[in-house]
Amino acid sequence: MKFSFLNFKKFFLDLFWPQFCLGCQKEGDLICSDCFSLIEILEYQFCPFCKTAQRVLDKGACAAHQSKNLKGLFAATSYQNFLVKRLLKSFKYQPFLKTLAKPLTDLIIVHFLLIDKKKIFQPVDNSLFIPIPLFSSRYKWRGFNQAEEIAKILSLYFRIPYQSDNLIKIKKTQPQTELKAIEREENIKNAFKVSLPKDIQGKKIFLIDDIFTTGATMEEAAKTLKQAGAREVLGITVARE
Q1: Is residue 121 within 8 Å of 158, Cβ to Cβ?
Q2: Residue 169, beta-bridge partner list
Q3: Which of 65, 189, 211, 238 is least surrounded by CB atoms within 10 angstroms?
């Protein structure tokens, strides 16, 4: 049996820096298959902007929020799940576990399989994944953009291109978690810019992020993309509050 470099690397890392499940502490993976299976995956779409969960079908948002720039949201699970919360915090903050991108993206993939949205990305050549960008100082602090890591894996799985350098963040903002809903809108206002509008004109854009809370960030990014010529903008996240 051939022992590839990747297998050797994994063997070496497991030997000297073994991983433990963030759920049950069992040695092996950062999230074991048993704990992964306990995470409830949402089987429906809900209006992104309603405070009380309101299920929607093909419209993406309820009648009261049809005028929003973000036309719908695909969220895999609830942020209220203690394990999901722990995984996302370990992904975004210390210890910055970048490898969590794969299991977290798997939750999104399972969500799409459950809701059976086979035509959502059609036509493929007119769809595009774009991660919510980070301001330069935030990127340096973390070392990677968590939304971009998710977008990369989704792009490979669904065979849809992604762009990580077209939508850019030009304004340094406070962390949204520190602000109230109305403050978040003002904080993120005019924070984004599209570098190459011709690359998104007429396209169906899927904005990628890790957590959806009030929707202020995605709505502002969607507005920027729409003004640059995007045909439609929808969101994809691991979890929503």
Answers
A1: yes
A2: 192
A3: 189
Q: State pLDDT tens for residues 90-144.
A: 999 988 999 999 999 999 999 999 987 767 877 777 999 999 999 999 999 999 9
51-240 CATH choice from 3.30.70, 3.30.2130, 1.10.1070, 3.40.50:
3.40.50
Query: Quick check: 84 and 239 in contact, CB under 8 A?
Result: yes
Burial 39-72 (b: 16+ CB within 10 A, else e): bebbeebbbbbeeeebebeeebbeeebeebbbbb
**pLDDT tens digits for 46-83?**
999 998 888 987 778 999 999 999 999 999 999 999 99
Q: What is the DSSP string of 44-83?
A: SEE-SS-SS--EESTTSS-GGGTTSSEEEEEEEEETTSHH
Q: 155: which DSSP letter?
A: H
Measured between alpha carbons, how far is 48 from 144 in angstroms, rounded to an integer?
26
> Which strand ranges, in their side-by-side order, compose the sheet holding 204-212?
70-78, 232-240, 204-212, 127-131
pTM greater than 0.85: yes
Q: Two tokens at 161?
A: 């291109």
Domain ranges of the chain: 51-240
Separation of CA 58 from chain center: 21
Copy the structure tokens of residue 20.
């433990």
